[in-house]
Amino acid sequence: MDSNLKTNAGLEPQPPLPIRNLHNFIYCPRLFYYQWVENIFQENADTVEGSHIHNRVNQPSRLQDPKELKDFNLPEGAKVRSLRLESGKLGLVGVVDIIEEGPNGTVLIDYKKGSARRDDKGERLVKEPDAVQVVAQAMLLREHGIEIKEAFVYYAEDKRRVPVDISEERIKECVIKIAEAKALAVAGRCPPPLKDDPRCLYCSAYPICLPNESAFWQSPDNTEDSDEIKRAPRPDNDEGEVLIVQTPGAQVGQKGGQIVVSVKGEIVRKLPAQQVRAVYLYGAVQMTAQAAHSFLEDNVDVSFFAPSGRFLGLLRGLPASGIDARRGQYRLFDERGICLKIASEMIRAKIHNQRVMLMRNGEPAERVLTQMAELRDKAAEADTMNTLLGIEGMAAALYFENFGGMLKNKEDFMFDFLSRNRRPPRDAVNALLSMGYSMLCKELTGICHAVGLDPFLGVMHQPRYGRPALALDIMEEFRPLIADSVAVSLINRGELNKNDFLFSSAGVHLNEQGRRAFWESYNRRMDTEISHPQFEYKMSYRRMLEVQARQMWRFVRGEAQGYIGFTTR
Description:
The protein is an alpha/beta fold. The chain folds into 3 domains: 17-187, Lambda Exonuclease, Chain A (Alpha-Beta Complex); 241-315, CATH 3.100.10.20; 323-556, Four Helix Bundle (Hemerythrin (Met), subunit A). 41% of the residues lie in helices and 18% in strands. Helix 1 packs antiparallel against helix 4. Mean pLDDT is 81; it is low at 1-10, 44-57 and 64-70.
């Protein structure tokens, strides 16, 4: 096997293949490509449990020098845990859970959650990905002068060891699999998803892979399988709390596994670090270096806002590698025809959703609904970007002319709505709309980063002044359904009054009390479950944003024919 297999660029040798990724390759080549080539990883309950199972063997045994391994002799019964080895000749790197000295020689043991597979007679057998992983570990140990006599996988659910065949025949088969995995990585093309395979049900990458959805987006005209897409791609680790801090002078710190919020040295709130899903900081709020490190390590986004609610920026760890997506994005979004096609679909979906909002919450004239429907259909057929933007502008003008009809609280003049205005908003309703749009922009900027897209290069909004253009593009179809809906709900429910706003020459903005009410309504809306227009399964708006971004991710990678905007009934 050629351990100097070159990368696509041909400039440097391919890095050694981690044995855990060889396990991925045997389980599913697409999972392997995501995790090794693109460094995209998604936790779920199974991976968390697997990590817990490995905690008992994750404390490395002390050795003087790895070079001494060739002369390393263990007395019978002795063990070495978490032994990391690398071989340039084999092109492999990996960690061996346990080697121990038994009466017949050195024994290799690998820990796995779950249970062994069973044959027709009920005998326990090692799963094939686990077996290949153990054979590769035995090869690494042999390379370092440690000959393995027996090998086992310990399955935590069965609480027993199952033997692994490490014969020369199995070693030859493993060498072939290593070469195949490396060749796939060099090819630089993600394999297609599995079809109707039970392995997908247990895969942590399911919310990223979206196997059935991917097949639909690849051939949207072929709808015969769409009825089978019933499982919502809902990650198991989507729980958690959003920590919102907006008191001037407050400090967010980390101490003993807890996130601590203090004001003038007095602790006002504590919560476990693992319970925090996101952090929003408004105005003059400080954050300690320890808290920042904790958030970065735990992949918790920290969003910064001006006191007015304007989104300023985001602290987050390194984004997903996503090099395939970014290359495709830079190439495709430089083509006017492709940009127009995607933008037309986004605006079509936006106008459709604006029309639905008017129908649900107001009593618009039939003439208005007819005009909105005509503009929606024209958007899909626009032949230039200027024509499309003109159609979008006419629809927006018509929509906001009738927006006031959705507001039920007519007794308070402060909620009279005449027109959309901004920079700064000059009335309470526009202040709510601006706040909602700022939050949506924040959400989608983070999601684009997370899925491996460049949020600053879009198809419709221009990439200037540091604007997250792609986030603003995807946001269009969700403006009416999320931001506008939150504003209408807050007013119609009577959850806000004049005391919740600041009125000044710099515009109208929510104060601290008003922002609390806004957040309650915003989070209610984001957690609301709605049906997907193509697949019909239900999921929250928060997760639907990611599904749309994942669809765009597939398009720029060449795995989808186009982009389908989100619409509701």
